[in-house]
Design goal:
The chain has 254 residues and is mainly α. The chain has two domains: 1-113, no CATH class; 118-254, Serine Threonine Protein Phosphatase 5, Tetratricopeptide repeat (Alpha Horseshoe), CATH 1.25.40. It has helices spanning 2-42, 46-58, 67-81, 94-108, 113-117, 119-139, 142-155, 160-172, 176-195, 203-222, 226-239, 244-253. The longest helix is centred in the N-terminal third of the chain and has 41 residues, at 2-42. It is globular.
Length: 254
Amino acid sequence: MIMKKLATVLLSFLFIASFAKAQKDNSKEDEKIYNKLANMYTMDKFAACIKACDDYIKNDNTARSPYPYLYMSMCYYSIFQDQESFDMKLYKDPLRKAVNFMGRFKKKDKGGELQQENEDYLRDLKKGVLLELANLNDKKDIKMLQSLSRDVAKNYDKDEGMLIISGVYLLRADVKLEGERNIETGMNYLKKKKSEDNLKFSFDDADVLSQAFIQYAEYLNDTKNEASAKTTIAFAKEVLPNSEKLAKYADNMK
């Protein structure tokens, strides 16, 4: 019995030691990947960086690293912002690719540390997405509006504001069932947080959320659902009681 316990303890120590070594090796590999990709990205070598990221992603030994997905997203977003400098036949739908690789990056960054380190980029990407959604809506580019809205819902699936906004644009693109589902999901997240007294948002998230409520209310007004629009804004003010945008919008509805 004693020998059996000793063997179990020894195996536990060996497992812990092996795990620690694997973690250390992964950390070294991550650092190597980061240095290579960061250098290419900083020097605006976006095409080369995308190729390197793709190679890492396809390699079983490096596919778990979050860095290739992050830099793939960053490169495609940089290309989206400077399309005149690139052959867009080779880099089709760069913003959608930036959003989708961002979503994959978040899944690889399970602890969220790298997301915190790269919050400036993630904030810029979100702003760029919102601007492009508005632009596509203004241009009545229904096909692209539908595609980007779906990408938003998929990759910002825990972000109440982005879910509601994606739902509104899908409604405007005449994809009613999917749009309503996105809005309902976002609203349910908020109702749950409200019931748990957990309505704490960063400045940026609160701003996006207030935009989402206003856009949804405007859609409801446009479709002759004024009572639902007022109910939506009333709930919005409960969620974001300090939002000047919502207060001003509510005053204009009276």
